[in-house]
Design a protein that fits this description.
This protein has helices at residues 15-26, 46-49, 68-78, 92-100, 103-116, 122-132, 138-143, 145-162, 176-191, 195-199, 203-213, 225-234, and strands spanning 7-10, 30-35, 57-60, 63-66, 219-222, 256-261, 269-276, 280-287, 291-298, 302-306. The chain is of the alpha/beta class and 307 residues long. The chain folds into two domains: 7-82 and 219-306, Glutaredoxin; 92-213, Glutathione S-transferase Yfyf (Class Pi), Chain A, domain 2 (Up-down Bundle), CATH 1.20.1050. α5 crosses α8. The radius of gyration is 19 Å and the shape is globular. Bound molecules: glutathione. Glutathione is lined by residues 14-16, 53-55, 67-69, 101, 131.
Length: 307
């Protein structure tokens, strides 16, 4: 039976979305692209996610995947070949995400906005202050530019060092580690005008970046947010019940929980557990515009709160 086409809710400038677009390219997938605005509100998306607002999210029918970790896990499950986890590397590419997606990403964001400086629009600043629950201080980011350049160089120098023996990819074969690290280089390339100067002494990194860019984005077809919402409304979630006998907190399908990120965009999404493991949790909820949906989250970097 043919697989339903994944729908990615994203915006073009989003580095986390670029991760997924490259994976669509690597796996040679056809996908639907719903372009969301860079700032809230996103009225056709919130009924699906239940409030989760970070970008991107992936939709397959009435199953909604929040955060790139769980999106990648699902894409790998549905389309195992070619794999992002070549032999012997089933764990570390995930763990490296805690470097690429957190300190390395925060370094790149600060660098990018420090460079843009006072040209960052006020409505964007206000939106990101809500996201962070704190000040989005562009002047402080500009003041931190020398430090951020240093840190960025240190991060990308590790990539250069890993490639020093002439290999093409960070591990023996292409893996999620390449995509996750590339996200930050791609992001800096969009916004940091002096990136070439920082990269110049790192020729292996530059060639690696070019190899990943050449992978492309797969076959992308635009779709409206209204059409995506209608697909969710017509579909039934397809996630089977799965319990976790080793859950250290005794959580089980049927329990009501709220799930939210532990760092920013901490909006709780409430629902009934359908499926869970050490790496995922899926909860059922309903909304008058979508009917029943199942919303999927990773466990790393997420809080699960009873009730
Ligand atoms: N850990 C998340 C991080 C996603 C993230 O921070 N995305 C940025 C855009 S690249 C975001 O959500 N910005 C605020 C927004 O789009 O509302 C993931 O892997 O998906």
């Amino acid at each position: 039976m043919s697989q339903p086409t994944p729908i990615l809710h994203h915006f073009d400038q989003s580095p986390f979305s670029e991760k997924i677009r490259v994976i669509f390219g690597f796996k040679k997938l056809a996908w639907n692209s719903v372009r969301i605005s860079r700032i809230m509100p996103r009225p056709d998306l919130m009924p699906m996610t239940g409030g989760y607002r970070r970008t991107p999210t992936m939709q397959i029918g009435a199953d909604i995947y929040c955060d790139t970790q769980i999106i990648i896990r699902e894409l790998e499950r549905r389309y195992p070949t070619p794999t992002l986890f070549p032999a012997g590397n089933a764990g570390m590419p995930w763990a490296l995400g805690m470097w690429t997606d957190r300190p390395f990403f925060q370094n790149t964001v600060t660098l990018a906005f420090g460079v843009i400086g006072d040209k960052v629009p006020q409505d964007f600043i206000e939106d990101r202050e809500k996201l962070r629950g704190g000040k989005f201080d562009v002047a402080a980011m500009t003041a931190a530019l020398p430090q951020m350049r240093d840190q960025f160089r240190t991060n990308i120098d590790w990539i250069e060092a890993q490639l020093a023996d002439g290999r093409s990819w960070l591990f023996d074969e292409f893996s999620l580690a390449d995509v996750s690290a590339y996200m930050n280089v791609w992001y800096a390339r969009q916004s940091v005008v002096t990136i070439d100067e920082i990269i110049k002494p790192l020729p292996r990194l530059a060639a690696w970046e070019e190899r990943i860019r050449a992978i492309g984005h797969g076959a992308r077809t635009e779709m409206s947010s209204g059409d995506a919402l209608e697909i969710a409304a017509k579909a039934q979630p397809e996630t089977p019940v799965l319990s976790d006998p080793f859950d250290p907190n005794g959580r089980k399908p049927g329990d009501i929980v709220s799930v939210m990120p532990d760092d920013y965009g901490k909006i709780p999404v409430r629902g009934e557990i359908v499926s869970l493991s050490a790496q995922h949790i899926a909860i059922r909820r309903s909304d008058e515009r979508t009917g029943e949906v199942v919303v999927h989250f990773p466990r790393a970097g997420f809080l699960v709160i009873p009730g």
